[in-house]
């Protein structure tokens, strides 16, 4: 099993959320979507990312394992943004995030199957303008 640097799905998700690298994704034949979400409720962040994944046909919402894999990737990314405490409004925090979702096979051997990555980048802080700081999170799960 080999995981070449060119096929590291997490790296590409972070680069996509920070910048656009659509040429490489097209070459790898991966599905992707980017979007933005701001909220004081973590369930709204999850819903925005799930909706984008469904609208862009990154996951098939009729297949449970695909939605389940996406959910776990989102939660892992949120853990990074929220420093392990996936709470927002209940502890007087809000986020303004850009997100990227990628689906593809990060391995050269196709038998390894597809994976999904969710990258989040933006700000988190008190719900007062100027009281936030940057944060980033990444979640990767197999489908």
Automatic annotation (TrEMBL):
Keyword match RNA-binding: yes
Q: Give GO terms for biological process.
A: L-histidine metabolic process; positive regulation of gene expression
Tell me the SUPFAM superfamilies matching this sequence: Hut operon positive regulatory protein HutP
Lineage top rank: taxon:
Bacteria
Task: List, alphabetically, the Pfam families matched.
Answer: HutP (PF09021)
Q: Recorded GO terms, molecular function?
A: mRNA binding
Entry-linked InterPro entries:
Regulatory_HutP, Regulatory_HutP_bacillales, Regulatory_HutP_sf
Keywords assigned by UniProt, alphabetized: Activator, Histidine metabolism, RNA-binding, Transcription, Transcription regulation
Similarity comment: family membership: Belongs to the HutP family.
Q: What is this protein for, i.e. what is its function?
A: Antiterminator that binds to cis-acting regulatory sequences on the mRNA in the presence of histidine, thereby suppressing transcription termination and activating the hut operon for histidine utilization.
Summary of subunit composition and partner proteins:
Homohexamer.
Q: What is this protein called?
A: Hut operon positive regulatory protein
Write down the species.
Answer: Bacillus solimangrovi
Its taxonomic path starts at: Bacteria, Bacillati, Bacillota, Bacilli, Bacillales
